[in-house]
Amino acid sequence: MNLNLTKMQGTGNDYIFANLLDVGDSEIFDEMNWSQMAIRLSDRHFGIGSDGLIFICPSDIADCRMRMFNADGSEGAMCGNGIRCLGKYVYERSLIKKTVICVETMAGIRTLYLDIENENHVRFVSVDMGIPIILPTIEINSFLLTPVSIGNPHVVYFVPNQPSEYPVEKWGPFLECHSRLKERSNVEFVQVVSQDRLRLRIWERGSGETLSCGTGACAAVVCAIQQKGLENKVLAEVPGGTLTISWNGNGEAVFLSGPAEFVFDVTVHM
Hints:
CATH architecture of the largest domain: Roll
Distance between the termini: 5 Å
Structural class: alpha+beta
CATH superfamily of the largest domain: Diaminopimelate Epimerase, Chain A, domain 1
CATH class of the largest domain: Alpha Beta
Number of helices: 5
Strand content: 35-45%
Low-confidence stretches: none
Number of strands: 19
Order of helices and strands: EEHHEEEHEEEEEEEHEEEHEEEE
Helix content: 10-25%
């Protein structure tokens, strides 16, 4: 079976997209194991290579529905970089020609706001990520961790030095699966640079260390605003680029803005 797929990336967080908005294509994909498909295609040596696989599906309650599978085949509830790429995909390919797009996810409906240039080019996408849930800080093996839900689970740790010097590859998998956490969590290692800027590295559950994580950057920013007194609009520097995150405090939604880019289209035989 030949499948037409598209690879995209947002600040280095790369995903493979499958368009299931056509009913016929949806029936074809339903015959396959989506989890195993994500594992195979995400492999950077024997597949296309990505942080995961995203299906763009029809929805009865929104403009479309997003289902996202990590590189290890586990399904994620939400993906900030992936959903921005989805917005660019459906607009520039004339599948949903709106500058405000509602997307159904496992974390609820998320609204995308598209910044359009020259009629058909999407420069940036901003996302209403919903209201973050910040839980009390806990201590695990001398790590002071703040659990945060941005539709999916995170723990935020403020590192004493630059994240680039921190052994994320050692402590990321340890904290991701720690028994003190209610479920496997994404882990953010964060440095506050100034009142409107922070720097972080991300260990994503199901994918390992990635160049960027939109929900992870949001989790880091809301913690920094609440605990470190940062301003309400913060630039989050990740290894793959810079994201802009705004949050006005408890009870308010957090907004994520950043670029999204096509990498290539590909046809694969499954």
